[in-house]
């Protein structure tokens, strides 16, 4: 967080949007994987 303003100035608005979208996609992928793992465990536990 210390250098966040410097990084934002360097990558400009378009870069910030890109990084935000990539982070969102990664978070979504992790969430989907967690759901798949949970469903798999429920099915195997039955």
Automatic annotation (TrEMBL):
Annotated Pfam families: MarC (PF01914)
Cellular component GO terms, alphabetical: plasma membrane
Subcellular localization(s) per the UniProt record: Cell membrane
Domain of life: Bacteria
Membrane disposition: Multi-pass membrane protein
Principal subcellular localisation of the protein: membrane
UniProt entry keywords in alphabetical sequence: Cell membrane, Membrane, Transmembrane, Transmembrane helix
Family: Belongs to the UPF0056 (MarC) family.
Protein name stated in the entry: UPF0056 membrane protein
């Amino acid at each position: 967080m210390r250098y966040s303003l410097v990084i934002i100035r360097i990558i400009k608005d378009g870069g910030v949007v890109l990084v935000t979208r990539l982070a969102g996609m990664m978070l979504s992928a992790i969430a989907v994987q967690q759901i798949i793992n949970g469903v798999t465990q429920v099915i195997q536990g039955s």
